[in-house]
TrEMBL record, chain A:
It comes from the Bacteria. It comes from Oryzicola mucosus. GO terms for molecular function: sodium:proton antiporter activity. The chain crosses the membrane at residues 12-29, 41-59, 65-88. InterPro entries: PhaG_MnhG_YufB. This is Monovalent cation/H(+) antiporter subunit G. Pfam families: PhaG_MnhG_YufB (PF03334). Keywords: Membrane, Transmembrane, Transmembrane helix.
Automatic annotation (TrEMBL), chain B:
GO terms for cellular component: plasma membrane. This is Na+/H+ antiporter subunit E. It is found in: Cell membrane. InterPro entries: Cation_antiport_E. It is a multi-pass membrane protein.
Length: 117, 156
């Protein structure tokens, strides 16, 4: 009985996690430029991966996995924003333009010199 | 002092990752941790003051915002007509140490609609990409009264 409940919980969490990752993927396709795409990849992707990891805790018979899951979630939360930030910064410096629907760009003056070259 | 703390944290993480909570394993974690901090010596600096209660509040706020953020992205992506006004705005920083700036930038990236892109060379300005940049003042206010204040409360 309890095992069934655990399995159902794990399954539901897996489904929820993969749904978030699906929206992250859709975001990569639908959003207009690299910067907005990073939003989808960094947020929905991170939450999706973390939820799927947490699902592992509920799988019956998987002992001692909780600590690993906690560490995995922590590493995701620490590294995902750093990679998103670096990708966005590298893209900006190498001249990737914001989508035409953008309404503000306060970074322009900082790298204006590089663009003039 | 800071170094011993880091060694201890590394050892605990090692215990969690190897999923074997035994004394020999803890000793192994401590030794490897000491070796690692010996190899990476350059930055240590002052350890930030930590207020446990304020840190707990910060973590709760963060988890809430993170879930909300994934939900918002999902809703946006699934809506048939995406009405976007993205842009990059500058944010004047009140936090000053490397640790605080890194933490704030990471938190901003994982919360609804905002993504840190760059820090100015003088480390006074953070450049943030927002998926909805129509109201810059409101976005600045959100960060200021939200995460930045909580970080200042937790680590000062």
């Amino acid at each position: 009985m309890i095992e069934t409940l655990q399995n159902i919980t794990a399954g539901l969490l897996l489904l929820a996690g993969s749904a978030f990752i699906l929206t992250a993927t859709l975001g990569l396709v639908r959003l207009p430029d690299l910067y907005t795409r990073m939003h989808a990849a960094s947020k929905a992707g991170t939450v999706g991966s973390c939820v799927m990891l947490i699902a592992l805790v509920f799988v019956p018979g998987a002992d001692g996995v909780a600590g690993r899951v906690a560490a995995g979630v922590l590493f995701f939360l620490l590294t995902a924003p750093v990679s998103a930030h670096l990708l966005a910064k590298a893209a900006y410096i190498s001249g990737t333009r914001l989508s035409s629907s953008s309404v503000a760009d306060h970074l322009k003056t900082t790298y204006a010199r590089d663009e003039a070259k | 002092m800071m170094r011993y703390g880091i060694v201890l944290i590394l050892a605990i993480v090692w215990l969690a990752v190897s999923a074997s909570y035994t004394i020999p394993n803890l000793v192994l974690g401590l030794i490897v941790g000491a070796l690692v901090t010996f190899l990476v010596r350059e930055q240590s600096g002052e350890a930030p003051k930590v207020r446990p209660l304020a840190v707990a509040l910060l973590v709760i706020l963060f988890v809430k915002e993170l879930l909300l953020s994934a939900w918002k992205v999902a809703k946006l992506v699934l809506s048939p007509r995406m009405n976007l006004q993205p842009g990059i705005f500058s944010y004047p920083l009140k936090v000053s140490t490397d640790f605080e700036i890194t933490l704030l930038a990471n938190l901003i990236t994982l919360t609804p609609g905002t993504l840190s892109v760059d820090v100015s060379d003088d480390r006074r300005t953070l450049f943030v990409h927002a998926i909805n940049c129509s109201d810059i003042e409101a976005a600045r206010r959100d960060i200021e009264t939200g995460f930045e204040r909580k970080i200042l409360e937790a680590f000062r």
